[in-house]
């Protein structure tokens, strides 16, 4: 590789780690098969792209430098090892696949070449597949469903169930959960404290490089015995390192908790901070790895994650190291993990939705999510919304245990919550540490970019606002929690991080991906079977929910970069009649909707179907739709759809305050005031129904899922009533810890109607409630709708049946 680069006038520097750190001055590209090397963060700060060796080969083949982002070894770009082409697919599907693969770090080819790794096709009859078989190319022929599921999850899953000619997903469902097939990323990182497991470090051979010329500090909070400390000292010393008691002299700081002066000082000065499990992993492998790569290699928070304490979580379909890892991750958040599922459980984390636990959870109203919800909540240090479809997606022939452990910690999030710039304790520690000019010079030699100014640095403005500072809107291009701050253009490390996080992202690829993949049907619109319930049927009249959600532009991060000064309005739209012109047909409707969304994006208005992200709610009048009622719980500004018409007509962003929805007739009809509802919603903070158990009959008008979404948005628990014996009301102990309402757990509700088929269910419901020492309330569904719309608990008597 080096000889080939020199042959084409490239200058080559060989990294001789661990003898010395890489000097990045003058370097334009770093070639590595992995992102997991000590200088990766320094490269990221300096905007130096890290690429895989194939970047060199492909650039030489095309006689030009290719986009380095498509060749990044960073696992966040999970398609980086995919070179795909499509065969005999509609143009819309081909564009969607191209956009998705490019946005996630892959390479898309318009024709079959020797570099292609995947052919996306619907059958083996296409010309590209025939040529690949004839030339015996090592490619995988997969259905478009594989790309769709990868993009929905944000992870690369196994191709086997999707491979032609004998793909499993086209066969009738067996009802059995698939087994995990791949080795996970959590081997050696399933527990944050190996001392509790009574493990001792045992290197397979003499350590050669991982501790060479490194100083290691073992914190006092590890709670290890003098005997074990002596063993660790001996291994580090024998490996060429030293053990120190001074954090200023240490290269590695080993501790148990994310707290204390030494932890903050080590973190602020960019030393490697990990826990004892990480130290054992280094000893076992004799290879350096970042302690942030595997979440349980990093110290835990003593008080857990806000919102998780009191949750009772069970696991299903995860086995081995993956299950142990998730159990310990649940404990690290402060929640309780149970082996069995009971009605007291608040969440079920499952690798597949085919199990007895999943069936019971659906009946009991327990939230069913995959492990990505837990991992990303922990990584972002904020409970993620379970309404995000990524957390409730379960590919039918894939066990998600295969992709456990691929989520990494974000150092910007850690800094924000655990060692911020303005932390007084860290400043005091820095002032009290013995330093001299020699130490400072040594530090600069080891971390040349920590003090070196990057000239002519241009930092884009954030240009984003959030409705609620406690619930910031995040994206791949913006540091979480910082969207309201315009970073300076100085040489501070924070500015470099923010600039790097934005400039490394390619706006063009993301825009293309969002343009195509947001339409109904995903990237396999042309390739679904007629029996697929999600397939669009031409000629069918579209429902308003489909129309409202079509081509949503919620994550159009590219526009955020291009329109720096545009305010961020995240808009939920319900009941907007002008989306559809049935006389022109559905395909023209889709084109019209896309054009409208594009024009709104250009004006700084981002249309979304996720009510939790909405800053504004638009409707022609007060309507009792799921979108409208659910969105009210998040206290958006309610405006008239005339605002949309006016913005489109004048092609400029108008003041939404001038278009507040005024509907006195419906306010009188439903006994509410939109302005007061919004004020109450802000005060309620999505906890209006906190601690309340609400059951629905199966045939309730509007559907169970509609009422479940409304209840969940307001902090309650919604369950399906099937009139089964032995059912009990779930304990509200998890909810009661966060509630101050003394009678919140006394009432239990059943939403139903006057139908004769439902009246037979009422008596057993009363028995169940009274047996659980609760007061049964059998109500018309209007009670919930009007309670959610007014954002106050309505008296039940007028609604009782």
UniProtKB/TrEMBL annotation:
Gene3D superfamilies per UniProt: BRCT domain
One Pfam assignment: RTT107_BRCT_5
Amino acid composition bias (Basic and acidic residues), ranges on this chain: 529-545
GO biological process: DNA double-strand break attachment to nuclear envelope; double-strand break repair
Domain BRCT: 1-73, 73-164, 308-391, 596-661
Bias type Polar residues, positions: 465-474
Compositionally biased spans, kind Acidic residues: 546-555
A GO cellular component annotation in the UniProt record: Cul8-RING ubiquitin ligase complex
Span list, region Disordered: 164-204, 423-497, 522-562
PANTHER family linked: REGULATOR OF TY1 TRANSPOSITION PROTEIN 107
Protein name as annotated: BRCT domain-containing protein
Organism of provenance: Cladophialophora psammophila CBS 110553
């Amino acid at each position: 590789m080096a000889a080939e680069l020199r042959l084409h006038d490239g200058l080559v520097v060989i990294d001789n780690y661990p003898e010395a750190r890489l000097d990045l001055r003058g370097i334009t590209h770093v070639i590595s098969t992995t992102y997991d090397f000590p200088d990766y963060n320094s490269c990221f700060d300096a905007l130096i792209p890290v690429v895989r060796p194939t970047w060199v080969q492909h650039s030489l083949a095309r006689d030009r430098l290719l986009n380095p982002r498509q060749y990044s070894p960073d696992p966040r770009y999970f398609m980086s090892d995919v070179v795909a082409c499509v065969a005999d697919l509609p143009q819309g599907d081909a564009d969607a696949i191209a956009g998705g693969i490019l946005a996630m770090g892959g390479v898309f080819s318009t024709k079959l070449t020797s570099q292609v790794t995947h052919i996306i096709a619907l059958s083996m009859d296409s010309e590209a597949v025939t040529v690949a078989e004839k030339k015996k190319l090592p490619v995988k022929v997969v259905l478009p469903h594989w790309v769709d599921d990868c993009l929905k999850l944000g992870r690369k899953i196994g191709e086997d169930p999707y491979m032609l000619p004998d793909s499993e997903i086209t066969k009738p469902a067996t009802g059995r959960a698939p087994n995990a097939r791949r080795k996970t990323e959590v081997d050696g990182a399933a527990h944050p404290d190996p001392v509790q497991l009574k493990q001792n470090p045992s290197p397979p051979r003499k350590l050669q490089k991982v501790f060479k010329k490194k100083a290691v500090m073992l914190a006092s909070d590890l709670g290890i015995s003098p005997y074990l400390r002596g063993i660790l000292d001996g291994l580090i010393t024998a490996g060429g390192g030293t053990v120190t008691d001074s954090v200023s002299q240490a290269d590695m700081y080993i501790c148990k908790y994310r707290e204390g002066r030494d932890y903050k000082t080590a973190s602020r000065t960019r030393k490697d901070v990990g826990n004892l499990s990480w130290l054992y992993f280094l000893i076992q492998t004799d290879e350096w790895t970042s302690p942030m790569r595997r979440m349980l290699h990093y110290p835990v928070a003593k008080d857990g994650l806000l919102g998780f304490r009191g949750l009772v979580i069970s696991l299903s379909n995860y086995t081995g190291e993956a299950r142990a890892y998730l159990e310990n991750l649940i404990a690290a958040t402060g929640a309780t993990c149970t082996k069995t599922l009971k009605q007291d459980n608040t969440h079920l984390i499952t690798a597949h939705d085919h199990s007895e636990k999943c069936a019971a959870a659906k009946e009991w109203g327990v939230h069913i999510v995959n492990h990505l919800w837990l991992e990303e909540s922990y990584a972002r240090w904020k409970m993620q919304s379970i309404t995000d479809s990524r957390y409730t997606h379960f590919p039918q022939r894939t066990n998600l245990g295969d992709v456990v452990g691929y989520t990494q910690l974000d150092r910007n999030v850690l800094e924000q919550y655990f060692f911020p710039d303005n932390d007084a304790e860290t400043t005091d520690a820095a002032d009290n540490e013995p330093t001299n000019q020699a130490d400072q010079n040594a530090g600069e030699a080891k971390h040349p970019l920590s003090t070196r100014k990057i000239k002519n640095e241009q930092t884009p403005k954030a240009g984003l606002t959030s409705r609620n500072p406690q619930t910031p809107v995040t994206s791949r291009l913006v540091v979480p929690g910082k969207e309201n701050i315009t970073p300076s253009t100085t040489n501070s490390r924070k500015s470099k991080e923010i600039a790097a996080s934005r400039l490394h992202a390619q706006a063009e690829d993301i825009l293309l991906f969002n343009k195509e993949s947001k339409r109904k049907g995903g990237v396999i619109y042309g390739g679904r079977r007629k029996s697929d319930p999600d397939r669009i049927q031409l000629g069918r009249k579209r429902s308003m929910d489909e129309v409202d959600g079509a081509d949503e532009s919620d994550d159009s991060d590219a526009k955020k970069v291009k329109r720096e000064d545009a305010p961020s309005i995240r808009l939920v739209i319900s009941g907007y009649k002008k989306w559809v012109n049935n006389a022109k047909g559905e395909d023209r409707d889709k084109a019209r909707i896309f054009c409208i969304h594009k024009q709104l994006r250009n004006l700084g208005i981002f249309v979304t179907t996720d009510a939790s992200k909405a800053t504004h709610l638009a409707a022609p009048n007060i309507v009792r739709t799921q979108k409208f009622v659910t969105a009210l719980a998040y206290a958006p500004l309610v405006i008239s759809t005339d605002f949309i018409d006016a913005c489109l007509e004048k092609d400029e962003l108008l003041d939404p305050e001038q278009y507040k929805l005024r509907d006195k007739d419906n306010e009188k009809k439903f006994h509410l005031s939109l302005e007061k509802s919004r004020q109450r919603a802000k005060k309620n903070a999505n906890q209006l129904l906190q601690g309340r158990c609400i059951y629905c009959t199966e045939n309730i008008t509007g559907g169970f899922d509609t009422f479940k979404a409304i209840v969940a948005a307001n902090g309650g628990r919604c369950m399906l009533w099937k009139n089964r014996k032995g059912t009990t009301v779930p304990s509200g102990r998890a909810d009661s810890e966060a509630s101050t309402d003394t009678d919140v757990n006394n009432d239990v509700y059943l939403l139903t109607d006057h139908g004769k088929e439902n009246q037979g269910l009422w008596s057993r419901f009363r028995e169940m409630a009274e047996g659980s020492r609760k007061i049964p309330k059998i109500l018309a569904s209007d009670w919930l709708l009007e309670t959610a719309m007014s954002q106050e608990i309505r008296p039940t008597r007028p609604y009782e049946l």
